[in-house]
Design brief:
Length: 440
């Protein structure tokens, strides 16, 4: 007996992180970390539901919710088993709707809404399988994995046959790497010390704590004031010592030539990479910056709109580090395409995380990459920020500088029911209390 999708529930969930300047950077000084949240419900007797979301930083979250709502007719009333059994076809159907696709195509808020829905479906599929998503993906055959990917616009750089070869080459060591992952976890780095709104004392204290907690890399936000950045980098380097990597992140602040000059001014403190130095769409600009700041590495990707931008970044030799995001491109399927592209070009993937639920979800993608694709964690780390984890049913856990491999079934993307109630915007009790306080 088949099951049917009975509801696509959406919620506008926001956290008042701007009050403590958590998440602050040169381009986003006062973010309220938020989730345009979706729950896929079915009439299956197991009572399981799939949870996904679009990550935003406050205003505009309602726009993302509306975009998810626009997908409701494509799911509600449809055969849930058929949707889940062929998520390659489901992905292509959601992305390929001609009228909604016009709003991108394949980029922007509509594309992110599709990510939320597809990720929720993957969450449900993994729950039904009784496995965490990384394990579900890692145990699929190369042929099954390739069938999930849309190779249109990619075949000049990566063909289905090449993708099969990459996945087949990694098959022999899967079981041993899964054992290693469960035993040791996956390397992490932390951005917790580096928010631009933090004082020098707080930066120094948190940087020292990061080293004590086992992290081999931290990250600092830069780009507002060069003099401040030079001072803060010196403080961070003195705090962590010579052997810990310090990445820097400009959050798209600079023009191309400005980026080169700014990074060169910071090189005495030995930055490991410069992240998002300019517009995320400027493929050739990143290539020029990379030539200009070497040996400092160039990293980007959290705002890259789709697999085509990633393809071009790799083809043009624009990046040393690829930073995919679990909730910006069209979900798990498109991220599989991006992981395969990175493997083909030999570029390490160090995902963007930190915001609401991004740590929880992206860990699954990197762990799949290790077990079933590249087979290595060399120069690969997942970003970690130490807030907004306890709000999840299956929160990300970092121990001794490593993500602990999740074992609970699903995509680790489900917020607790009380959190959904308390932080719904604007009517939840947390936001009502803030409104009353601001009105005084």
């Amino acid at each position: 007996m088949t099951s049917t999708v009975t509801a696509l529930r959406t919620l506008d969930i926001r956290f008042p992180t701007s009050r403590e300047l958590d998440g602050s950077d040169a381009m986003n000084p006062d973010p309220d970390y938020s989730a345009a949240y979706v729950i896929v419900e079915t009439d299956a007797p197991d009572g399981l539901s799939g949870h996904g979301f679009v990550f935003t930083i406050g205003r505009g979250n309602e726009v993302a919710v509306a975009a998810i709502d626009a997908l409701r007719p494509m799911l509600v009333g449809h055969d849930a088993d058929a949707l889940l059994e062929d998520l390659g076809a489901t992905s292509r159907a959601l992305i390929g709707d001609s009228q909604l696709r016009w709003l991108g195509p394949e980029k922007g808020v509509m594309h992110m809404a599709i990510a939320a829905v597809l990720n929720a479906l993957w969450d449900l599929r993994a729950k039904r399988a009784g496995m965490p998503l990384w394990q579900l993906l890692s145990r699929m055959t190369p042929e099954e994995l390739v069938a999930l990917v849309d190779f249109r616009y990619l075949s000049d750089a990566l063909t289905p046959e090449e993708a099969l070869q990459l996945l087949r080459a990694a098959e022999p060591g899967r079981a041993e790497r899964e054992r290693q992952l469960l035993e040791r976890g996956y390397p992490a780095y932390t951005t917790t010390p580096g928010w631009l709104g933090y004082s020098d004392d707080k930066l120094e204290r948190l940087a020292k704590e990061a080293v004590a907690d086992g992290f081999g890399q931290i990250k600092l936000k830069v780009g507002a004031c060069l003099e401040d950045d030079i001072r803060r980098m010196k403080i961070a380097r003195a705090a962590v010592g010579a052997d810990v990597r310090i990445a820097i992140d400009a959050n798209q602040r600079w023009d191309v030539d400005e980026a080169v000059e700014w990074v060169r001014a910071l090189t005495p403190s030995d930055p490991y990479w410069i992240e998002e130095p300019t517009s995320p769409d400027d493929v050739l600009g990143h290539a020029r910056i990379r030539r200009g700041v070497s040996p400092v590495k160039v990293a980007t990707g959290e705002h890259a709109q789709n697999r085509v931008i990633f393809k071009q970044l790799l083809q043009a030799g624009s990046i040393d580090v690829l930073q995919l995001d679990a909730a910006r491109v069209a979900g798990v399927n498109e991220n599989l395409a991006i992981l395969l592209l990175a493997a083909k070009f030999g570029v390490p993937v160090c995902p963007h995380a930190g915001g609401v639920g991004l740590c929880e979800m992206v860990q699954h993608l990197s762990m799949f990459d290790f077990v079933a694709l590249t087979g290595t964690t060399q120069d690969r780390v997942i970003e970690y920020v130490d807030h907004l984890h306890g709000e999840f049913v299956d929160p990300a856990v970092v121990s001794d500088g490593h993500y602990v491999a999740p074992t609970a079934p699903g995509f680790s993307s489900q917020l607790r029911d009380d959190v959904l109630r308390d932080y719904e915007y604007p009517a939840g009790p947390v936001w009502r209390a803030i409104a009353e306080e601001d009105a005084r």
